[in-house]
Amino acid sequence: MIATDKPAQLSSDVESLKMESPSKIIFGAGIIGEALLLACRAAGIKIEGFCDDKVKGPLCGLEVIHSSDLKRKYQDAVFFIASANIKDMVDRLKDLGYSKWHSCGLLLRDFDLSQVPLGPTTFTPEHLEYKVSSCVLCHDNYMNPNRLFLQSVDIIITEKCSMKCTDCSNLMQYYEEPKNVELDETLRTIEAFCRSMDDIYEFRIIGGEPFMNKELHLVVEKLICEPKVKKIAIFTNGTILPRETQIPSLQNSKVTLFITDYDELSRKLTELTQLLQKQGIAYFSQKAQGWTDCSSLEKHNRTLEQGVEVFKECCAKNLATLSEGKLYRCPFHANGARLKAIPDVEEDFIDFLEKPLDEIDSEEMRKRLRSFLVEKTYIEACDYCNGRPYGAPKIIPAIQIDKPLAYKKVSF
User: Fold this and answer.
1) CA–CA distance, 343 with 360 (Å, rounded to integer)
2) CB 3.0 to 4.6 Å from 154: which of 84, 321, 361, 379, for a disulfide?
3) Distance CA 367, CA 320 (A)
């Protein structure tokens, strides 16, 4: 998410928040929403319920309302936004006819998060702090229209994966001869991208399976040395242990491993978590969940209006992804382009390697980035995607296949 024109946030002090008369709703029923509810109660602010299109309630004894049902119950309300995706939520409220909202930063910035109850299989205190600090920073930057800031950006370092999931949303199931990305390309992409941004909270290293690239630690070391990058997230499936040469980079305080637990498929999970604990490497492990049917590659021939609606409702349109030196709006588009299953449309990506670094006009690049990340309402790749709307039906994750899936390549 990137700052846009200055938003019309409401009161900036707790006493004013308590005096507001409309019903008060927390928009976002995840762990940040729970923390925000406790912060509101501690400040004497009465919350009537949550709004969320993915989570069903009740939560903490309060009703969870789908956004489509809000007007039926609340003609007027003020919302406390409990998600890093603040721009999407503000836009959604505007579409629904609501204009009163608050960032969670005022209440969560100095709140004692140890008061938030955590289940044994959900969040650790460290991961809760990770999510809340990310959310507050995103909100702060949203309020500053002059900054180029991203909550997160993915970078693909390999097409290789130790699993072959038929419904992988990153399209690994289509690669016939997967390969690692050249290290020089990756390092030059990181340098060029960071030069154009003010801050990136989280650089997310993805594949495939990142540990299938033996040079992973060199990518991590590059990001550790980049002051604009606050956190480094490595997404792994619990099938491969880090090499001894990779351990020192993983021990850096910027780095966290995010492990998806696929039960028996994550055959090295126990060994991996024991190794990480022994080496003092931060990690978070979570069961595979939330998969939707969004992995097919076929042209739908939608109208422009239909395509705009698919883009608008997509939960992945802000998952900015770096691939082959180019910035895409989502991993689906990035991998579809790598597979040559989606045509190149010049306006739908930004190429950071088309010129040498010293020939890039930094101000012009910032203008292009702001337009690309803020003003886009549709990309051609949307017509090749089933769509990923919030609240889409869930499917069984990680069903394995024996060989790559067939798909149609486009002509260039």
Assistant:
1) 25
2) 321
3) 17
Amino acid at 97: G
> Three-state DSSP class for 252?
coil
Cβ pair 312, 147 in contact under 8 A: no
Q: Residue 299: which of 330, 329, 341, 259 has the closest Cα?
A: 341
Unique residue bearing structure tokens 């990309």: 379
Cα–Cα separations (whole angstroms), residue 313 to 62, 316, 389:
26, 9, 5
Q: Which phi and psi (to 5°) does residue 203 adopt?
A: -95, 120
- Give me 289's structure tokens: 């969940």
Residue 65 near residue 118 (C-beta atoms within 8 A)? no
**Which DSSP category does 290 fall into?**
-
**Cα 3 versus chain centre, distance:** 16
What confidence category does residue 7 fall into, taking pLDDT thresholds of 50, 70 and 90?
very low
CA distance 304 to 411: 22
Q: Closest Cα partner for 152 from 232, 255, 252?
A: 232
Interacting residues of 275 by C-beta distance below 8 A, sequence separation 6+: 241, 242, 281
Instruction: With beta carbons less than 8 A apart as the criterion, state whether 329 and 380 touch.
Output: no
Beta-bridged to residue 328, according to DSSP, are 321
What distances in angstroms separate CA 245 from CA 109, 215, 221, 242, 258, one per listed residue? Answer: 37, 10, 12, 8, 20
The mean pLDDT of 135-162, rounded to a whole number, is 92
Residue/partner pairs of 67-76 with CB below 8 Å, 24 or more apart: 67/92, 67/96, 70/25, 70/96, 70/98, 71/96, 71/97, 74/22, 74/23, 74/25, 76/22, 76/23, 76/100
Category of 324 on φ-ψ map: left (φ > 0), alpha (ψ -120 to 50) or beta: left
| Average pLDDT rounded to a whole number, residues 374-390 | 94
CB distance 322 to 157 below 8 Å: no
Position 120 scores a pLDDT of: 57
DSSP tag of 129: H
Measured distance CA(339)–CA(324) in Å, rounded:
12
Q: If you ran DSSP here, which 8-state letter would residue 365 be given?
A: H
